[in-house]
Amino acid sequence: MTNLDLTKYDLIMKRFIGREGELALLNEHYASSSAEMFILYGRRRVGKTELLVEFTRNKRAVYFTASQVATGDNLNQLTMLTSQQLGRSELEGLTFKTLESYLEYIANLEGTSRLVLVLDEFQYWVSAERSIPSMIQRFWDRIGKKSQLMLVLCGSSISMMVDYTLAEKSPLYGRRTGQLELEPMDYRTASRFFPTWSEEERLSAFGILGGIPAYLEQFDPQVSLAENIKDKMLHKGRYLAEEAHLLFKTELRDPTVYFSILRAIASGCTTMKDLASRVNLDARAVSTYVSNLQTLHIVTREIPFNEPRKSRKGRYFVKDNFLKFWFSLVEPNQTLLDINQGERLFDQLISPRLSTYMGPVFEEICRQYLLLFGEEAGLPVPVRLGKIWHRDYDIDIVTENLDATNTIAECKWSKKTVDRRLIYQLRQRAETSGFMTAQKHLVLFTSSGFKGGEIEDSLFIDCGMLLPSR
Fold it and tell me: 3-state DSSP helix/strand/coil percent for the chain, to nearest 5?
């Protein structure tokens, strides 16, 4: 997508959803009276391009996506796009020897007019020519910081973007005026892709696709969740059916080992010892692979809420919902996909297990609710949040709150309504764990509703509260 024509992008782009806070941040920097160097990064498919296209709408802007080609090719393409997007025909015959000379020309060309220059997939350009950050540094120190340029450096390789633009060893260190790691959408924003679906379907879609806009856009809101899974994920050649393989081939070497590790974690091997045994590798080697997956925000390590950060009781979980679903329910049955038996796979192996799969995903949804929306229900703001697991019991969510109270929560994804026995059970577990103090909030989350009425000092939250009016 190197040649991005901003005037035609609307024709191929679906309705822009969410990202209000991120847009506000970018516009705040745009509205400043000084030069801006903004660093935007995040995993692939998270919506960086869509965000920047929406941001540059109706602004004087040049949007360029670097390719994995020689520096001269990228520079020539950038010059041509600048001529087209700014209507500067005099640029058509110019050839710049370096990115630094191009930036100097543009800064002088625009004078006192604000110009946004987006260099997307920045890591590709730097991989081809390591001196690119130094060129930008020289330009910025001599001319750029006194201009009206808003330079946006954007990339998908999180570790490389940090190394090239934010790390202390980078020539650009200390020169950025703003930065943002674009995160996946929260469950409420993701649910806006499917406004006519039931609450359960919308939450399940988040559990299957996560908050990645590129994945959410693949599902058709005019048909059911089940039909979307069968049609969009379980047919060879479909975007989502090939995504896991493509993602790992693009981001990581030796994807076979990563696949084995993710399948093991998804199946319940959550300690380093168990992982090493399952994939038949030395624990130190497995640790390196897992560390890479953590850097990509694919895997996360959790420790019990009541344990120190360096506790050896940590467990590993697949953080990315799409990959969690894929390696839990699809990839172990890849043979059925290969012989075009996707519908059979869904009916016999996925559909009966979907409710069980959604159990831990629902816990994450409830965590997001407490962090982002809990004040709607009168709950305090958490400053620390986690889970307790013990040989005899688990507590799904425990928080330490801004007002020095604790919230203790149980999360129940089930087709059956739940009753007050779960609250009594939660109260008992909280007492056993030592969190049952006077300054506490007991919360029961459920996907299917309650029977038996409210209980004093406890709060019941169902899908209607998790997903208020559409």
Answer: 50, 15, 35
442 conformational bin, left if phi > 0, alpha if psi -120 to 50, beta if neither:
beta
3-state secondary structure of 15: coil
- Domain co-membership, 274 together with 291: yes
> Which residue has better confidence, 14 or 118?
118
Q: What is the pLDDT of residues 314-340, one digit of tens each?
A: 999 999 999 999 999 999 999 999 999
- CB neighbours of residue 85 within 10 Å: 18
Is 226 part of any domain?
Answer: yes
Query: Side-chain half-sphere of 201: how many Cα atoms within 13 Å?
Result: 19
Place of tokens 């941001």: 55
Classified as helix, coil or strand, 408 is strand
CA 304 from centroid of its chain's CA atoms: 24
For the cut 50, the answer to whether the pLDDT of residue 361 exceeds it is yes
Q: For residue 431, which phi and psi values (nearest 5 degrees)?
A: -65, -40
pLDDT over threshold 90, residue 6: no
DSSP string, 135-185: HHHHHHHHTGGGSSEEEEEEES-HHHHIIIIISTTSTTTTT-SEEEEPPPP
**Does the structure show a pLDDT above 70 at 220?**
yes
Distance between CA atoms of residues 250 and 242, nearest Å: 12
Task: Give the rounded distance of the alpha carbon of 9 from its chain centre.
Answer: 23
- Closest CA relative to residue 200, chosen from 42, 342, 86, 361: 361
Q: Specify the DSSP element, H or E, that contains 397.
A: strand 394-401
The domain boundary residue, chosen from 318, 334, 357: 357
- CA 163, chain centre distance (Å): 20
Regarding whether 301 and 408 lie in a shared domain, the answer is no
Could you report how far apart the first and last alpha carbons of the chain are, in Å?
34
Average confidence (pLDDT) over 384-390: 90
Domain count, the chain: 3
Q: What's the rounded mean pLDDT across residues 223-237?
A: 95
The CATH number of the domain holding residue 24 is 3.40.50.300
CA atoms of 243 and 234, how far apart (whole Å): 12
Burial grade of 81 (CB within 10 A; 0-12, 13-18, 19 or more):
buried
Output the pLDDT for position 438: 62
Q: Which pLDDT score is estimated for 1?
A: 37
CA distance 409 to 397: 5
Q: What is the mean pLDDT of residues 392-408?
A: 91
Q: How many CB atoms lie within 10 A of CB 401?
A: 20
